[in-house]
């Protein structure tokens, strides 16, 4: 089932999400719905707060970025061909490497894209959908998407990395998003 994406301004986007246990109600259905919602919205990642759940889970698929690349773009990133994965109860162990810029957007903040600096690699402890534990290091675009989605479960948004002046310049657009004055081609719910 395609779920509505929560828009900028909703309190759930600013909450630190809670870990869940293997007996979380209808977890398999929630994960399936998150995948369906992400793909229907043309996203590469989706965190539970974006569907109004304050739990530590996100899905991401960096492989689709590489599948849709032009031939002259191939081989630019060390994580090619990307991954598709579910992260439950993730916690960052380490951020490493030089920070690099990439133009990011967010399903909860439609029609705004900004160049954001993030470290090259991220090491995470997490459990998968079978609650098997993992500690893994990711790099390239995969690391970037993971850091972006991880921020969601920490109550942070990509616009928090902007310089104050730039954020002030976007404030009108952000206010419009929170009031529902934005058109998107996916289901969205707005703060009241």
TrEMBL record:
EC number, as in UniProt: 3.5.1.88
Binding annotation for Fe cation: 106, 148, 152
UniProt cofactor(s): Fe(2+)
SUPFAM superfamilies listed in its UniProt record: Peptide deformylase
Entry-linked InterPro entries: Peptide_deformylase, Peptide_deformylase_sf
Keyword Metal-binding tagged: yes
Key words of the record: Hydrolase, Iron, Metal-binding, Protein biosynthesis
Entry function: Removes the formyl group from the N-terminal Met of newly synthesized proteins. Requires at least a dipeptide for an efficient rate of reaction. N-terminal L-methionine is a prerequisite for activity but the enzyme has broad specificity at other positions.
Gene3D superfamilies in UniProt: Peptide deformylase
Catalytic activity: N-terminal N-formyl-L-methionyl-[peptide] + H2O = N-terminal L-methionyl-[peptide] + formate
Protein family (similarity comment): Belongs to the polypeptide deformylase family.
Active-site annotation: 149
Broad class of enzyme this protein falls into: hydrolase
Cofactor note: Binds 1 Fe(2+) ion.
Species of provenance: Danxiaibacter flavus
Protein name as annotated: Peptide deformylase
């Amino acid at each position: 089932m395609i779920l509505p994406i929560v828009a900028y301004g909703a309190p759930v986007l600013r909450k630190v999400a809670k870990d869940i246990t293997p007996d979380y109600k209808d977890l398999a259905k929630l994960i399936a719905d998150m995948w369906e919602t992400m793909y229907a919205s043309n996203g590469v990642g989706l965190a539970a707060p974006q569907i109004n759940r304050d739990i530590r889970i996100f899905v991401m698929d960096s492989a689709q970025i590489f599948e849709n690349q032009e031939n002259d773009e191939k081989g630019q990133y060390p994580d090619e061909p990307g991954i598709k994965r579910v992260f439950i109860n993730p916690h960052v162990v380490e951020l490493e490497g030089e920070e690099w810029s990439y133009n990011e957007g967010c399903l909860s903040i439609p029609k705004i894209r900004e160049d954001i600096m993030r470290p090259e690699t991220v090491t995470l402890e997490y459990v998968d959908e079978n609650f098997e534990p993992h500690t893994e290091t990711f790099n390239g675009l995969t690391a970037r998407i993971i850091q972006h989605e991880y921020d969601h479960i920490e109550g942070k948004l990509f616009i928090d990395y902007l310089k104050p002046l730039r954020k002030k310049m976007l404030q009108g657009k952000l206010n419009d998003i929170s009031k529902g004055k934005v058109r998107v081609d996916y289901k969205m719910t707005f703060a009241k």
